Amino acid sequence: MNQLIEWDKRLFGLINREWTNSFFDWLFPIARNQSTWYPLYGILLIISIYLLRKRAIWWALFYIITVAASDQTGMLFKNFFGRVRPCRQSVMPFRLLVEYCPSSFSFISNHASNHFAMASFIFFSLTGMATIYRSLFFLWAILVCYAQIYVGVHYPADVFAGAMVGFLLGWLFSKAYFFILARIYKK
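Now predict its structure.
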């Protein structure tokens, strides 16, 4: 376990301190900011209404439930493991590219969990959208995840575990969404 933690810290150092440039220093704080993506959420709602018509309300409800479940699951992990964020450890050099270091624990990353839950739910539930377009949401989630490490608020293992938890929750809630729809709209 100590070896894994050491590798995690080394990879964090590479991403946060070595593999850097001024463009990424500008891009990644914006990419991890929740308000950056508000227009995308609006477009997604419009797409769901277009594809699903009257079922869009159920889709939006399950989408919200998926994110809420992911967020609360992430908090359970954080409180259970109690891993301190890299930006809260004074013994390790890092670059903090955001205005503050969150006070919550680090493992797992809620940004990673929530964005992968959204991407996974979209991918598995919006089957009327072409697979290539649904797959782009995973690239979006990966961008946000990488940004969390780059700006100095999470270790790579926090982000990887968060992504896995989020993916699983998104998939499970897409199954629940289809299960409920089948019961509501019986033919």
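The mean pLDDT is 93.
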